[in-house]
Amino acid sequence: MEKPSVSRADPNVRGKSQMKTIANIATLAICFSAAQAHAENDVEVMHFWTSGGEAAALSVIRDRVVVAGIFWEDTPIVGGGGDQARTALQARIAEGNPPSAMLMLGQNIINWADEGLLGEVNAVAETEGWDAVLSQAVMDFSKINGNYVAAPTNVHRTDMIWASREAFDAIGANYPTTWEEFNALAPRFIEAGIVPIAHGGQAWQEAYMFEALVLGVGGPDFYRDALVELNPDALSSETMQSVFAQMAEIRGMVDDDFAGRDWDVATSMVINGEAAMQIMGDWAKGEFTNAGQRPGQHYACIPIPTAGDEGFIYTVNSLSFFAQPDADAADTQAILATVIMDPEVQVAFSQAKGAIPARTDSDVSSLDECGQANAAAFSASEIAGTAVPTFAGTHAAQANVVAAASEVITDFFNSDMSPEDATGQLAEAVELALGQI
Questions:
Q1: Whole-angstrom Cα distance, residue 147 to residue 88?
Q2: DSSP count for the chain of H helices, then E strands
Q3: CA atoms within 13 A on the CB side of 127
Q4: 0.90 exceeded by the pTM?
Q5: Which of 429, 423, 428 minimizes the C-alpha distance to 405?
Q6: Does the CA dihedral 92-96-102-108 come out positive or negative?
Q7: Of 222, 85, 229, 208, nearest to 157 (Cα)?
Q8: What's the whole-number mean pLDDT along residues 53-61?
Q9: Residue 80: per-residue pLDDT
Q10: Could you tell me the CA-to-CA distances from 133 to 333, 366, 386, 387 in Å, in that order?
């Protein structure tokens, strides 16, 4: 049975939660003071939030943690997809030196929890009533085997188009609402000297583009069948060929220098009006915000055109807690968890990150129009059953399956492979990867 959601703007729930959170931070800070003489109280956070907007968002959490009397040790690992961070984490685990907390996504959290390497913050979660303010989609990647092993910072939407108002005004065009309109814009932008699609040629970026197209071309039911259930009939279907065909259209819309470009550099092309659009998750909005741009005035945030029912591809961001050898270290993790779940922190973090809060009782009225629209869309899609977990972000499938599929996807995008051949290779790659689990 689907877990009922609490209204995002319920002032009674929000007020009680805020008072409870303030009290908990104070209590935990007292615990910290008592232990300070006996141990070094710090918290090391390993992450891959290194762009301007991401760093601004993380600082919201860091500043509150520091106020609580904890020394923040920042360990950033460059690489937007998180592959480098996962490699660095594995090395730390092999050394027996895990960080206090780590930014991890989806199935990776479940895997580390199953290995028995994650700690828990159940006492904080119970005191603050996390069960009542987190949707099932968020709890699936925060509460594992009955234990809260992660504190969710936000929810992202991955099926988004970011459009430069300057570029669209230059050709006198409206924002696209169908794939036919989307494709017809490209020659007009090229004639005006504007790159139609800003893209960074990295495998993880192409995987996120691919999943957006699976939703956009096939709809949420097909997405779930193909990328969540990994149904071989869906993976090898004519609909999947249409997905790759649309991806081939987009391949003709990028500039010649896209290979290896970081995602935030591609976003800056849209910010500067050099490119018209970017297909990227809503973390891109953090870069627009960091550059002083506002939706409606400078850019548009457009959900991917969808076939039939609208959908919503979600990514849950969270910091997962690794088991620590002493109680004092666990106390600092508890403070970090309380700060992350503070209702005010949730909103401020999302404002900087371009996301929506993980808490269902958050007051989203201070978010911009894109944030408010996505918050409403996420709630509505959960109720309608059209919210689907990200494949590229390893929520829908294990990392080795995503890696195998991504290799086919990026090979397709960087070659003249036919959609038919790509579809066959995708189905085969997924089948082989599933056989290795």
A1: 25
A2: 19, 12
A3: 20
A4: no
A5: 429
A6: positive
A7: 208
A8: 94
A9: 63
A10: 20, 19, 21, 18
